[in-house]
Amino acid sequence: MTTISDRRDTTDQPGGGPQSRLAGTTYLLRLALRTERFTTPVGVLVVPALYLSTAASLAPLYPDATSRAALADGSAANPVFRILLGPLRDTSGTAQIAVWRVGAFALLVVAIMIAATVTRHLRGPEATGRMELVRAGAIGAAAPLAAAAITATAAAVATGVLTGAAAALAGVPAPAATFLALQFVGAGLAATGVAAVVDQVVTTSRTAIATSAVVLLAAYLVRGIGDAVSGLAWMTWLSPLGWAERVDPLGDRAVSPFLACVALCAVGLGVAAAVGRRRDLGAGLVQPRPGPPVARWPISILGVTVRTMGGSLVPWMSGAFAYCLLVGLLTDSIDDLLGASEAAGDVLRDIGGGSGAASSDLVGALIDTVLGIMAIAASAAAVSVVGRLREDDRTGRVEVLLATAVSPGSRLLAAAATATVTATLVLLLAGVGLVAGAAAVGGTGPGVVDVLLGAVSQLPATLSVAAIAFAAYGFGTRWIALGWAAVVLDLLLGPLGTLIGAPQWLRDVAPHSHVPADTGASVPAAASSILVVVAAALLATGLWALRRRDLT
Known about the structure:
transmembrane helix, single chain, 0% strand, 26 helices, 2 domains, 72% helix, membrane, globular, transmembrane, disordered N terminus, ABC-2 type transport system permease protein
């Protein structure tokens, strides 16, 4: 009689055949299909939707060849735009310009999304112990890696196909749209290989996603340097995202860079499979450091919350500063970039939403717009704190914590305090980045105090959005998705409400539509006070509900 353990030992034997090592892959794919029914489809639709909205918004801004040529000349002369977006190769229509506007940065977004998909199905189950239960059945040693790779590849292909279809619908010729699809598929495949290797090195899913994101961001910057600096174009060949860019759907339409991405994926999966067969389940090549032998004094729930969540919140703050620093470097050339298109300037002023003196010029409107977007990012950072609470609930760490003199309510309040400080730092660092970037290039615009006040004025609306997630957590961890939905709706109806043509009554639902970023103008005290009261009421609701439910 063959037992489950006998079948498992057979699949793990070094001499076992490929079929035995891949046994159960189909079952893991079915599991992935159920667990990814929301996250991956939403991620796949982001880039096609972004492309269509970008193409629609650009159509009235660059209606003729003169305005498009002026955009190309300004962008080609600006190294910051080349780093962010790459070179503009085709100005024959707004659909082609939209490919450039979305292109390089969207490749990074897709790559990080695909890497996170791999980690959710590979390192994630190992870190939480679920993989031990899965492998207790007739599941081969290589089946989890194969299932994660197939899921990520399917997501990459779907993203590429839908983006190519969106481009063709907007007016890009069919051959260029086909190679645009290959470009995104190549970026996704390269990210799959990178994430598969990273998941063998580290031991936690959060660290794995962060490491993969850092590797891909470094590849993005290396590609940008190759595009921006004359004589360093060869550096794009050092980056997998540079390979994807060199597919060049609007130019050479090369296949060899796509094949390089496929090769990186194959090599990465091969290395991951080899390492996975030689390590313990749940372990990694780099083991986490043990904690200090003596507890820090005094011990408080707030201190524990900051220490356990601080590392995951640093990327939000550093990313806000780095992005705004790059935007600040554009302030000295914004008039040249948009001066040929009055409509572009009008749209920028409308999105900025400001009415003060500082917003009457393009630099002030640009700063208002960026601060409005950063306010949404601060909301997302605060909501991610609630996500960490849910993770602690699922892994059982909260039971150890609450076995001490810590109540569920004090734990939620400590998380709320951490989220508030994080959102504040994201906004302040965004303002500092804008000011520092403008000062580095000698750009003119609002003063330091005005920019920082404009950033901090977004805090009440930001906290009211984050408070939705805290209230939802009080009723159950499955409701936390409402917090992320609130972030997305706030973005669409707040900073982007004018762009998408939302009616005013609908825009009034978004907290940030009541307190738009407006550097140089007075803070609307009444609206800010009401938003603070709303945030406090939502947090109180979460505390009330939390005391009346089981934590699990």
